[in-house]
Design a protein that fits this description.
This protein is an all-beta fold and 120 residues long. Strand 9 and strand 10 form a beta hairpin. The chain has no helices and eleven strands. Strands 2, 4, 5, 6, 9, 10 and 11 form a seven-stranded mixed β-sheet that branches.
């Protein structure tokens, strides 16, 4: 069975940090593009970070650039999203994904989502 095991969501004050992790089961992350999407309340799902499969190039959404870091641990078959300097607007459900490229439609595997709440 192909799936992700997720961990790391929670509640934090503005300026705080959280780390999200997803461990892949049944497939190898190193063979895929990997990314994080999020869906804020009342908004569409948006891509916020991705590592390209072909060359390891990393893209970030402008809204998280300089604050979030995506990484992959091939030995553990796990991906991470380190989130620093969290803002109220970062509240939402965060999804780990893997697929053939960094485009939404090319993501074949999706985590169930981790809730991140930033509140004062």
């Amino acid at each position: 069975q192909l799936h992700f095991v997720e961990s790391g969501g929670g509640s934090v004050h503005p300026g705080g940090s959280l780390r999200l992790s997803c461990t892949a089961s049944g497939f190898t992350l190193a063979n895929h593009a990997i990314g994080w999407f999020r869906q804020a309340p009342g908004k569409d799902r948006e891509g916020i970070a991705c590592i390209h499969r072909e060359d390891g190039r990393i893209n970030y959404a402008d809204s998280v650039k300089g604050r979030f870091t995506i990484s992959r641990d091939n030995a553990e078959n796990t991906m991470h999203l380190q989130m620093n300097s969290l803002e109220l607007a970062d509240t939402g459900v965060y999804y780990c994904t893997a697929g053939s490229s960094c485009h939404f439609g090319a993501m074949d595997y999706w985590g169930k989502g981790s809730l991140v709440t930033v509140s004062s």
